[in-house]
């Protein structure tokens, strides 16, 4: 018989230099040139927010709330808790208690491909949460089914490995291996600078095709 909760070693935190680099990067810019790594569009922020962190992953089945709190006990400052609802159900595993506990551990965000609950409490907390809607049906620590922590998961159609860099903002959530995220960030910032230079040309009513060089 296997252990009901599989807990693997926590990943290495993404470097501060990458966090700094990502501070001005927009996921919508990345969406112009990357095709994978985007957590599904139905997963949106509870309130406008931005978060940059190290992915701590959870595979959470059924109504088992224990696995979520086991993961929270492993969080360190700068982590982003990324949860896969493996049953794709309408049960909320994130609410006011989870948010309070994650914040106390120094986490920067919770991202779940399922609903949350205690929506007003989450908004009042100002702790960033990305989720797929709201539900009054919740998990409980009384239901101990099992789950896994720091394993590869699928969240909103995206593959997320523990230790991935997470960039989440009002437009979406993008995840990638840290070295690739750095390359993506460098290119995105270059593109954003170019876009700012291009904007007056477009605002003047000119065609983008009038320019010798442009980024589509």
TrEMBL record:
Keyword annotations from UniProtKB, A to Z: Magnesium, Metal-binding
Residues annotated to bind substrate: 95-98
InterPro entries: RraA/RraA-like (IPR005493), RraA/RraA-like_sf (IPR036704)
This protein's record includes keyword Metal-binding: yes
Keyword Chloroplast belongs to the record: no
GO molecular function annotation: metal ion binding
Cofactor(s) it depends on: a divalent metal cation; Mg(2+)
UniProt cross-references to Pfam families, sorted A to Z: RraA-like
Binding site for Mg(2+): 118
Protein name (database record): Putative 4-hydroxy-4-methyl-2-oxoglutarate aldolase
Species this protein is from: Rhizobium mongolense USDA 1844
């Amino acid at each position: 018989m296997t252990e009901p909760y599989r807990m693997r070693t926590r990943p290495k935190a993404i470097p501060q230099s990458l966090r700094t680099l990502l501070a001005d990067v927009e996921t919508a810019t990345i969406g112009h040139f990357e095709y994978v790594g985007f957590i599904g569009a139905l997963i949106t922020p509870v309130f406008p927010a931005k978060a940059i962190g190290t992915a701590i992953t959870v595979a959470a089945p059924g109504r088992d709330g224990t696995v979520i709190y086991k993961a929270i006990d492993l969080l360190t400052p700068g982590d982003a808790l990324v949860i896969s609802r493996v049953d794709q159900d309408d049960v909320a595993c994130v609410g006011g208690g989870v948010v309070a506990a994650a914040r106390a551990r120094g986490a920067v965000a919770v991202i779940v491909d399922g609903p949350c609950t205690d929506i007003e409490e989450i908004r009042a907390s100002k702790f960033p949460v990305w989720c797929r809607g709201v539900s009054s049906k919740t998990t409980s620590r009384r239901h101990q089914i099992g789950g896994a922590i720091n394993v590869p998961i699928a969240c909103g159609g995206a593959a997320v490995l523990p230790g991935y860099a997470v960039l989440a903002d009002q437009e979406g959530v993008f995840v990638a291996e840290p070295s690739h995220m750095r390359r993506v960030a460098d290119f995105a910032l270059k593109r954003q600078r170019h876009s700012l230079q291009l904007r007056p040309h477009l605002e003047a009513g000119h065609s983008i095709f009038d320019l010798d060089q442009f980024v589509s």
